[in-house]
Design goal:
By secondary structure, this protein is mainly alpha-helical. The protein has one domain (1-100). The chain is built from one helix and no strands.
Amino acid sequence: MAIYGIYDTIDSINCIINAIKSIINTINGIIKAIKGIINGIIDSINFIVNATNGIVHAISGIVKAINAIVKAKNDINNAIYGIFKAINSIVNGLENGMNGLNNAIVEAIYDIVKCINGIVHAINGIVKAIQLH
């Protein structure tokens, strides 16, 4: 009977050893699960950071594009203003030229009239001289 007691004791010890092994395996499984959860959280945070950086870069690109469009619009407005200014200068130049030309024509006609007057006076003088002789 004592032998059966020894066998029972050995079986109990084996049972306890197996239970301890099972507890160790369970603890190892829990540790692996916790590591997996932590790694998943870290991966999620990295994904969120990368996505946020992508959004920031996209917004920065949109802002740069809007600034480029605004600059191009300003450049176009400046070019149009320059064209109108050039046209205005041409018109003013033409007006001044026409005024100068008109003045020159009027002065030339005045000079011609004075010249004709002089000729008439000369003819009158000749006629008077002929009459006096």
